[in-house]
Amino acid sequence: MKTRKKLRILAAGDIHGDARATKKLAEKAKKENVDLVVLTGDLTFLEQSIKDIIGPFSKVHKQVLIIPGNHETVATADLLAEIYSNTKNIHGYSIQIGDVGIFGAGGANIGPFSRMSESELYNLLKKGFDKIKNSKFKIMATHVHPSNSLIEKITPGFKGSNGVERAIKKFKPDIALCSHIHEAWGIEEKIGKTKIINIGKEGRIIEV
């Protein structure tokens, strides 16, 4: 019986236009021989620059999935996906890679850009989930963290999203990736059987 090859993902968020951080992530993606890079929003700092956010990953021939954060618009994420053929914006969409389905929604419930209502976030996640609901393994990517989470308790001034929490409980992804709260980078917790991981700009290797 053949052993299933695991999908290796480099996940990162909150890059905020830091070209040095992106270069390091691309080097890590190459060294670790990952199959995919997932960037969970705040790609820019207040839309100031989109230079060198995706380019380093193109140079090492890595596929990239992105969602907007609350520091850039959905249009900016769409533009990056248009410029770079290796990139897809999964804001309200999904992708199937083998038996792994990945879906997402960016934006946040606060911030200057891509501000989403709770119902918008939930409906975008549902739209993406519906396309990959029969996948053996499911990964959900959001920028904002779920409400009633440890992340929210650590930073009570930054409320989590009820829409994201509702999606986790309804769709039961195996892993839910988020960023947004810098103080919570690296925190792992569970909602039901779903592992929640808050990732930062140094990146995290995940195998599914």
Secondary structure class reads alpha/beta
User: Percent of residues in helical segments?
Assistant: 25-40%
The CATH architecture designation is 4-Layer Sandwich
Placed side by side, the strands forming the largest sheet appear as 5-6-7-8-10-9
Q: What do these coordinates show?
A:
The protein has 208 residues and is of the alpha/beta class. It has a single domain (9-160, 183-207), classed as Metallo-dependent phosphatases (Purple Acid Phosphatase, chain A, domain 2). Helix content is 28%, strand content 24%. The strands form 2 sheets. It has a 6-stranded mixed β-sheet. Helix 2 links the parallel strand 2 and strand 3 (63-66). Helix 4 (118-132) runs parallel beside helix 6 (162-171). The radius of gyration is 15 Å and the shape is globular.
Describe the structure using short key phrases:
208 residues; 28% helix
In short:
By secondary structure, the protein is α/β, with parallel strands linked by helices. 28% of the residues lie in helices and 24% in strands. The strands form two sheets. It has a six-stranded mixed β-sheet. Strands 4-3-2-1-11 form a five-stranded mixed β-sheet.
